[in-house]
Design goal:
The chain has a single domain, classed as NAD(P)-binding Rossmann-like Domain (Rossmann fold). By secondary structure, the protein is of the alpha/beta class. The protein is globular, with a radius of gyration of 18 Å. A seven-stranded parallel beta sheet has the order 3-2-1-4-5-6-7, sandwiched between helices. The chain has seven helices and seven strands.
């Protein structure tokens, strides 16, 4: 089985690439940076997904995890949304495809983050639904995950700042963030185990968006 993972050089992408290698997959990675993975079943390409002419030729992909993304920079929309479209249109619509998963964001559901980042991730959810409709022809699924906080190096500034971390935990009912390993488990489940759910966005944020109750009633 072949899987393509974008943004595979660090963070969630790197962890997921290693997870799928452990499961026996042939893994193809695309990133602007080189990879630290040394494995005969891992194939790495340095490319800019926002420039579709730089994308490599990869045939017969079974699964795609559209993970690559930037945050709070001038390229958020061109990379996160247009780049994701470039990748999907090039590789997804062919006879081997079984599932496509998009890494959206909890911010796409709440609107609570950097403006262009929110717009790019909300666009991914809309595009995912379009892809799900078109993949029906191949008997394949498409879904997205909208993650809240994840314990990655890129989130280090808030994780290591005690004041920021306390504010975050005060707003997070389960009082924790996801690990990269947990994200990889979700990715595997939605891409490989799942055969019937398609066109849905799954919000995974430790209850931050949906479990913050504002109900008040006087005590007896």
């Amino acid at each position: 089985m072949k899987i393509l993972i974008t943004g595979s050089s660090k963070g969630i992408g790197l962890n997921t690439a290693r997870f799928f290698l452990m499961k026996g997959f042939e893994v193809y990675g695309i990133d602007l940076l080189p990879s630290s993975i040394e494995n005969e079943h891992y194939h790495h390409y340095i490319a800019d997904i926002s420039k579709k002419e730089t994308l490599p030729e990869i045939k017969g992909l079974d699964y795609i995890f559209n993970n690559a993304g930037l945050q709070n920079c001038e390229d958020d929309i061109s990379n996160n949304l247009k780049g994701t479209i470039n990748v999907t249109e090039k590789y997804a619509f062919q006879g081997y495809i079984k599932s496509v998963l998009f890494n959206a964001s909890a911010s796409a559901n709440t609107g609570d983050e950097f403006p262009e980042y929110v717009a790019s991730k909300a666009g991914i959810i809309g595009y995912m639904k379009n892809v799900a409709i078109r993949l029906v022809e191949f008997g394949a699924t498409a879904n997205s995950i909208s993650l809240g906080g994840v314990l990655t190096d890129s989130n280090g500034p808030v994780i290591k700042d005690r004041a920021c971390w306390k504010k975050i935990m005060d707003a997070t009912p389960l009082m924790k963030w996801m690990s990269e390993d947990e994200v990889s488990e979700w990715v595997y489940f939605l891409l490989v185990t799942n055969k019937s759910a398609s066109g849905i966005d799954i919000l995974i944020d430790n209850g931050e968006a949906n479990l913050n109750s504002s109900f008040v009633w006087p005590k007896e």
